[in-house]
Amino acid sequence: MIQSEQTALFEEEASSPRVSGRFCPKLGPEDLGFSKNIGGALTSRSILLYQAVKLSSIYQKAGLVQSPKHYVIDENRLGIPTLSSRQKTCAYLKQEYGFSEEILISRALFELHRIHEEEASLSLFLLAWARDALLRYGTLEILGTRHNEVLRSAEIYKVITGETENRYRESICEKIVSNWMASWTQSGHLSGKSNKCRAQVKAGPVALAFACLLSTLSGETGENIFSSIWIQILDLNPQQARELAQKAKEIGLLDVYSMGGVTQISFPGLRQIFPGKL
Fold first, then answer.
1. Separation in Å, CA 5 to CA 9, 10, 55, 135
2. Does residue 232 carry a pLDDT above 80?
3. 146-149 long-range Cβ contacts below 8 angstroms, 24+ apart
4. Partners of residue 257 on adjacent β-strands
């Protein structure tokens, strides 16, 4: 599918989560790790995706046994020079990504990475997106921006002030927008310095499997999973998502079965994490 057709598909399908002018994507329950709370890292910083990837690589080797405090503050594995900065970074990383067996969607992501090693930035971005409402605002504007087209910060400012009903003063909202733009640049959806242009991300099978899992936990079923907002964030159309799901199936990340127009997606390796949910 050429870029213009793919963008048009995203624009059409992405319209459904907006209700009465508000962005209302389907989200799973908070006891699994999803969050609808407004606030978080973007009021002060970006989502610190680079640091999250580095910490994730430590956890992939050691398991989710130690708290982020052990690696970020005590051992300073991220190389942050001052104690106060380590403490702030640790708090933001915990808020955005969990890094705990008690945050079930975080635990599931690390189980997927245990099955198949893959660069973690996109799957971690999905995790942050599930947990940070401010990061979610402006998603439809990202998906509706064509490849190499400039996304204006003024447009995102308008969206965020509308979604938050002007709860933040102007200077804080400007900082949120700057951190929002930086976060979507870290994920690969935007590129450039002063002028941020839309870029294409390239998802691997772990990111696809995690997107399907988050979509399933948020109430989507069957073919609807392949056109969900979680898949669109990976810059995949439904056909591309189906093809990547077959690769994910081959390496044991999920099961996908289609017959007679009915599609079923399951996650045998994750059922112990979500008893009765999958």
1. 6, 9, 38, 26
2. yes
3. 146/3, 146/4, 146/7, 146/198, 147/3, 147/7, 147/198, 147/199, 147/200, 148/197, 148/198, 148/199, 149/197, 149/198
4. 264
Residues 156 and 158: their CA atoms lie apart, in Å, by: 5
* Cα gap 243→103, rounded to integer Å: 30
Q: In whole angstroms, what is the distance from residue 232 CA to residue 234 CA?
A: 5
DSSP calls for 232-259: HHTT--HHHHHHHHHHHHHTTS-EEEEE
Q: 67-83, pLDDT tens digit by residue?
A: 999 999 999 999 999 99
Degrees, nearest 5: CA angle 127-237-220: 55
Alpha helix (H) residue ranges in the chain:
3-13, 49-62, 68-69, 83-97, 104-115, 121-131, 133-136, 139-143, 153-163, 170-186, 205-217, 229-233, 238-250
Whole-angstrom distance between the N-terminal and C-terminal Cα of the chain?
32
Q: Beta-carbon neighbour count of residue 115 at 10 Å?
A: 17
Query: Looking at residue 224, what DSSP letter applies?
Result: G
- SS3 call for 145: coil
pLDDT of residue 18: 56
Mean pLDDT confidence for 43-64:
92
C-beta of residue 9 within 8 angstroms of C-beta of residue 152: no
Segment 216-222 shows an average pLDDT of 95
- Measure the CA–CA gap between 88 and 246, rounded to whole angstroms: 41
